[in-house]
């Protein structure tokens, strides 16, 4: 096949996508969905002191149909996994997944030889975008995770990175 | 919302009437985690409720059997993560009883102080989340504000915010310092001055009263058959608190009361918890005043436990009721069997019987007053 | 008080078992100049009623009784008549003896008195009668024990998997369980 010079299109969708991405990144709506201990730190992140609202991600929605981020906060048991999958499937596109805590990353403290009850990591059945280690991760870590996700969505970081040490 | 079981509501429960099944959970904001309840409804009235558990079964008891005694300690912090220190304490008591370890007095005091702070934090979170269930968002923010102060204090000595693993067999691993003592004293003062505000804001609120008063009566006979403990039982007029009933640690040294309410309704259980916050403040205050000097770790505590054959039982009053732990030792360095008796397991089991004939929003208010932590029920 | 009352009520139910006890008979005093003989150990089978009142400080309970499985409902009935409440039911697997032990913990509101009731059943066909018609709370505890150990509680209304997934056919707390 011979290649042809294409005419530049009249309507440019890419910039529109970028604008949309900025909009989405700055008002992520997570799902109110806690599995275990990590969910308490997720609550703490949304409550006074840590105040996730500063970063536009405080609108916790109980219904998956209104959310665009699923924060998997806690241990996923084999019994719960189908429900988690259903919740994920019910979310409208575009959607992202944050694995919060060691349990959601790899099974954490409950992964041992001979275990019969848990799924060792959310990425076994969900496309995870951001991993936040900790048992439980501090609320600051969750906030950083959300900023990380923003960066993934827009391609650039809006907030300065805090240097530690 | 006020709907005690009257003749009329019983008539509605006529089994021949058309019923439908309503699935609540496992992901539902009012069940505080991954509890699922299969409800058979007749219109707004509940005909039958069947809780379905196991969505966060994490094999704690199995894990106890394949690690050493000390290695199980972090697990106790993840059972009831809101009152992790009570669970630490219960497990320590069981292991110390089995091995015959004496704990120095200072360590006992530190244990009581930190456990009580943890209890306050747990009740504050319950308070916020419970009022949130009933539709009030603001109290949660106030409650978290105070709770963060406690977490700061506990973090400075334990190194964790939530899943504490602070106690060791024979004491605690880190001594408290002057900063902690001044901080805790300031906190006691602060929370005391804020309690009237909580009562003004929430307790005296007419909506809350209408939703809780005379709702969800739990009789003593019902509590006995189901083995309910903790604030649920004390809201039904039974003065049963392991701290007084079966004194452990240095609790006999403290002067505190057990709040008991005789109304048996949701309001009574709410009031028990609110009063308990004040009693715990008293214990913390006395503990800080009386704190003796000395080591925080028993000098002769063995590094590796090998208790003699047999079984041992220990119980503590956790924030949700009596937490019991039965350990069976076969003389090796791993427990042969660990049974965790979690209070909310028994407390939730009465839900099915208690909520019959109630309307759904009232049943959720009743469930809220049971103060459920699902990973502790499923273990 | 409470302890004495419940001890009397339960005493008739306790099993009597052959227990091996080791008796040490001290050697007779040696005559002058002789070396002391070693004390002799005698293993004896003694029949003993399995009803103990252990030291509370050491064990954490006041009364420890073993009953034949068939007597469990009777024991539960006398406990509830005296106002005891059920703390928990659990199992312990003893593969060497080929048995599963079912352990019931009771406690009392008014007076500190912890009672432990045990019953042993065959490991291959574990079955004990239910007490869920006496203590309603036992329903869930028994279902849990069935999940973990496979103990059949005869007369129980519903022994479907409780904490394990709906299709679980394994009993994870048995010692020979492999995932
Ligand atoms: S990572 Fe740790 S804190 Fe989080 S759910 Fe798992 S055990 Fe709990």
Description:
The complex is a heterotrimer of chains A (165), B (379) and C (179). Chain A has five helices and three strands. Chain A has 165 residues and is mostly helical. Chain A has a three-stranded parallel beta sheet. Chain B is 49% helix and 13% strand. With 379 residues, chain B is α+β, with helices and mostly antiparallel strands. Chain B has a single domain (60-354), classed as Orthogonal Bundle (Cytochrome-c3 Hydrogenase, chain B). Chain B has helices at residues 7-12, 60-65, 73-79, 84-99, 105-133, 138-158, 178-203, 206-212, 220-226, 231-234, 242-245, 266-290, 343-349, 351-354, 360-369, 374-378; strands at 20-24, 36-42, 45-52, 167-168, 171-172, 310-318, 321-329, 335-341. Chain C is α/β, with parallel strands linked by helices and 179 residues long. Chain C has four helices and nine strands, in the order H-E-E-E-H-E-H-E-E-E-E-H-E. Chains B and C meet through helix 2, helix 9, strand 6, strand 7 and strand 8 of B and helix 2, strand 5, strand 6 and helix 4 of C. Bound molecules: iron/sulfur cluster (SF4). Residues 36-38, 74-75, 101-103, 108-109, 135-136 of chain A line the site of iron/sulfur cluster.
Topology readout:
The complex is a heterotrimer of chains A (165), B (379) and C (179).
Chain A: H1 14-26, H2 37-46, E1 69-73, H3 81-90, E2 96-100, H4 102-106, E3 130-132, H5 139-154
Parallel strand pairs in A: 1-2, 2-3
Helix pairs in contact in A: 1-5, 2-5
Chain B: H1 7-12, E1 20-24, E2 36-42, E3 45-52, H2 60-65, H3 73-79, H4 84-99, H5 105-133, H6 138-158, E4 167-168, E5 171-172, H7 178-203, H8 206-212, H9 220-226, H10 231-234, H11 242-245, H12 266-290, E6 310-318, E7 321-329, E8 335-341, H13 343-349, H14 351-354, H15 360-369, H16 374-378
Antiparallel strand pairs in B: 1-2, 2-3, 4-5, 6-7, 7-8
Chain C: H1 2-11, E1 16-25, E2 40-49, E3 51-52, H2 56-59, E4 63-66, H3 72-81, E5 84-94, E6 99-108, E7 115-122, E8 127-129, H4 138-149, E9 152-154
Parallel strand pairs in C: 4-7, 8-9
Antiparallel strand pairs in C: 1-2, 3-4, 5-6, 6-7
């Amino acid at each position: 096949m011979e290649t042809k010079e294409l005419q530049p299109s009249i309507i440019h969708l890419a910039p529109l996508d970028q604008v949309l991405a900025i909009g989405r990144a700055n008002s992520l709506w997570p799902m109110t969905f806690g599995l275990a201990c990590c969910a308490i730190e997720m609550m703490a992140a949304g409550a006074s002191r840590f105040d996730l609202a500063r970063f536009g991600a405080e609108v916790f929605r109980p219904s998956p149909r209104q959310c665009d981020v699923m924060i998997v906060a806690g241990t996923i048991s084999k019994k719960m996994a189908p429900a988690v999958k259903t919740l994920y499937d019910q979310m409208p596109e575009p959607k992202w997944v944050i694995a919060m805590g060691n349990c959601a990353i790899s099974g954490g403290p409950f992964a041992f030889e001979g275990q019969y009850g848990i799924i060792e990591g959310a990425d076994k059945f969900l496309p995870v975008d951001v991993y936040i280690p900790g048992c439980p991760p501090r609320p600051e870590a969750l906030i950083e995770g959300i900023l990380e996700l923003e960066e993934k969505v827009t391609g650039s970081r809006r907030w300065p990175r805090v240097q530690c040490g | 919302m006020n709907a005690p079981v009257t003749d009329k509501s019983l008539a509605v429960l006529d089994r021949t009437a058309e019923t439908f099944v309503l699935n609540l959970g496992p992901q539902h904001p009012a069940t505080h985690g991954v509890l699922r309840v299969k409800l058979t409804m007749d219109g707004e009235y509940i005909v039958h409720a069947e809780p379905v558990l196991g969505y966060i079964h994490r094999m704690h008891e199995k894990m106890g059997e394949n690690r050493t005694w000390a290695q199980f300690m972090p697990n106790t912090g993840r059972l009831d993560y809101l009152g992790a220190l009570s669970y630490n304490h219960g497990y320590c008591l069981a292991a110390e009883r089995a091995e015959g370890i004496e704990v120095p007095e200072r360590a006992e005091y530190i244990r009581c102080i930190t456990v009580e702070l943890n209890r306050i934090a747990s009740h504050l979170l319950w308070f916020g989340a419970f009022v949130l269930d009933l539709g009030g968002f603001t109290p949660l923010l106030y409650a978290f504000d105070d709770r963060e102060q406690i977490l700061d204090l506990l973090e400075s000595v334990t190194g964790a915010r939530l899943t504490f693993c602070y106690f060791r067999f024979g004491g605690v691993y880190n001594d408290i310092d002057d900063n902690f003592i001044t901080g805790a004293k300031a906190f006691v003062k602060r929370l005391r001055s804020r309690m009237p505000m909580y009562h003004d804001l929430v307790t005296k609120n007419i909506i809350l009263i209408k939703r809780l008063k005379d709702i969800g009566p739990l009789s003593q006979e019902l509590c006995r058959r189901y083995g309910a403990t903790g604030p649920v039982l004390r809201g039904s007029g039974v003065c049963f608190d392991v701290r007084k009933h079966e004194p452990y640690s240095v609790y006999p040294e403290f002067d505190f009361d057990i709040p008991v309410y005789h109304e048996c309704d949701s309001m009574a259980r709410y009031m028990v918890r609110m009063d308990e916050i004040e009693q715990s403040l008293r214990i913390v205050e006395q503990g800080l005043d009386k704190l003796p000097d000395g080591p925080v770790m028993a000098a002769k505590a063995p590094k590796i436990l090998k208790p003699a054959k047999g079984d041992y039982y220990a119980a503590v009053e956790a924030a949700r009721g009596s937490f019991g732990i039965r350990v069976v030792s076969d003389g090796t360095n791993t427990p042969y069997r660990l049974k965790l008796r979690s209070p909310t397991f028994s407390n939730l089991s009465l839900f099915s019987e208690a909520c019959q004939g109630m309307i759904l929003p009232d049943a959720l208010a009743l469930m809220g007053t049971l103060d459920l932590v699902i990973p502790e029920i499923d273990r | 008080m409470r302890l004495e009352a419940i001890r009397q009520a339960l005493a008739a139910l306790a099993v009597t078992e052959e227990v091996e006890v080791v008796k040490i008979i001290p050697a007779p005093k040696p005559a002058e100049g002789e070396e002391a003989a070693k004390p002799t150990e005698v293993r004896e089978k003694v029949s003993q009623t399995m009803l103990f009142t252990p030291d509370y400080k050491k064990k954490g309970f006041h009364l420890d009784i073993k009953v034949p499985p068939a007597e469990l409902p009777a024991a539960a009935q006398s406990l509830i008549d005296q106002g005891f409440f059920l703390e928990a039911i659990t199992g312990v697997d003893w593969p060497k003896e080929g048995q599963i032990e079912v352990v019931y913990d009771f406690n009392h509101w008014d007076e500190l008195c912890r009672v432990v009731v045990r019953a042993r059943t065959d490991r291959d066909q574990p079955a004990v009668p239910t007490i869920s018609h006496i203590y309603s709370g036992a329903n869930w505890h028994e279902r849990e024990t069935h999940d973990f150990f496979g103990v059949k509680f005869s007369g129980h209304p519903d022994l479907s998997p409780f904490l394990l997934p709906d299709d679980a056919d394994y009993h994870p707390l048995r010692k020979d369980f492999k995932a």
